[in-house]
What does this fold into?
Amino acid sequence: MDKLGAIRQKLGGNPVTVKELRGRMRGARAFIILTIYLGILVTLVSLVYFGFTASSRGLMAPEIRLNMGKVIFGVVVTMELFLVIFVSPGLTAGAISSEREQQTFDLLRTTLLPARSLVLGKLLAALSFIFMLLLATLPLQSLSFLFGGVAREEFIIANILLIVSALAYSSLGMLFSSLFKRTLIATVLSYATSILVVFGLPILVYAIILSMSVFFSNLGQLTTTMEALLIRAGWLIISVNPLATAIVTEIIFIEQRSVFMASLPLNGDTNFPILSPWIGYSLIYLLLSLLFILLSIHFTRQTER
Amino acid sequence: MTPIIEIKELTKRYGRSNQPLTAVQNLNLEVAEGEIFGFVGPNGAGKTTTLRVMATLLQPTHGDIFVGGHSVCKTPREVRRVIGYMPDYFGVYHDMTVWEYLDFFAACYQITPTVRRALIDELLELVDLSHRREDMVDGLSRGMKQRLSLARTLINDPRLLILDEPASGLDPRARVEIRSLLVELASMGKTIFFSTHILADVAEICTRVGIIEAGELVAAGELEQLQQHLIPHRHIQMSLLGKLAEALATLEATTGVQNLHQAVERGNNHTRLEFDFSGDDQALSELLADLVRAGIPLIQFSSDARDMEEVFMRATKGLVT
It folds into this structure.
């Protein structure tokens, strides 16, 4: 059997994934969630469409049509990003702690199921559900291609950001779930962390920039090194926040037509090259995901003392 | 016979090092393969702690338990291959049918799907739940859940079943069913180590008993041995229609007969004799045969039950950790 086949069999053969998916898809709940989610998105996309057609009166100019495609794509991806950020941790925050609460954790631990399989099985099941929601949204995303205005690169980057975010925020919920015995605590902490990263961080950064601008205005002209340092710090902060990453990546793509690199003017004459934030975001979040997963396995494996 | 369980100097303390709570203190015990071992003790005696260490769920503070020759501390995965563990609660997945529940745990033991199908059918038949195969686990009665739980512990064909209070909270019928299931499993060659409060179960099915109190093993052995050790005398009552003098002579000549006294039963002219007897079952049987051979017209000969409750009360002091 080839390597890919072995991996596929290993993932498909994880009893935890099968159990979770069977439970999640049983009954009407999953289909109701999917219908509501798609209903909201369709409403928003329709509002955008009718907004544009109402303002254009008659035949729509090509540039307006391209603009509409961009807006529809932006709305759908933003909604998907919020879905991923706020639904993923909710799906995994009870993964291990609910086993403790249902008193099934001990039963599992006396079987031959390794802690690794338990954590990865739960994570895979949660990700499968998220990816099902994302896949169901693809036809809405592709509406933008009908109107134009969205490049293939933008489509690919947006979906990479969504996948990486789903993995990272699911792993975050998993970490709290393995760390705390109560699902409620794990859920609250997962959401608190997500909200802090998405909304708290920009507010904090804005406050820091405001206070620093007063400090730097007193210093006069900044040195090149200082300016480069500040750009790197700003890049790092942007690369941690999913919304900021998406916006800045899009700006770089529109203004510089660049997918991987951007250049910023330094002291007016020299250019300072930086990676497009989506690359940093993907690397940082993939590393964090790995760390969260390893820690989750460690905490799940620990024998009670 | 080779011991399947060897508990060696097991000590388990909970809490901070300056104020630890000792749940189990220097416990030493061996259980041979094929035994039904009843582990009895009051609440908080350390039964569940011992069972949880044995099931690889808890790290001991000191000592070790060897199950099938494998250390629970050093090779827990090997121990898990040998055991089937049933806690004193029923772990419920609300959204599963009976067969899905067993299928899931069978998959957790890495049993292939083709083997699983036949295995689940066999187990459901064993615990008499074949007719509830497609029902949701949550809808089963407590007794049925307990039987399903027992089926789950058997899924990996373990040599040793570790059962924590298997009959607790069950109605009399369900208790009898579980008890007969345990006997059936023992006849299939399984070793059963179970904790219980229900002393009648212990007396009924156990080949050996261990009594634990305040974390320490206060008595262990076959029930008969414990009875003899803890209650050296049994009280005998007999009624006869006549030949009192011969009966008294036979009794007085028998070793182990003490505190002999007689009474006439009202309403009839039967004579009742009561005495304490310190001999074993064999000696008691011989005494009865002597009385019959002497032509004593016996109409009743009974021994006060030196039951498990009496043994338990004598062995324990009512201490709780």
Summary: The CA atoms of residues 226 and 311 of chain B lie 7 Å apart. The radius of gyration of chain B is 24 Å. The mean pLDDT of chain B is 87.
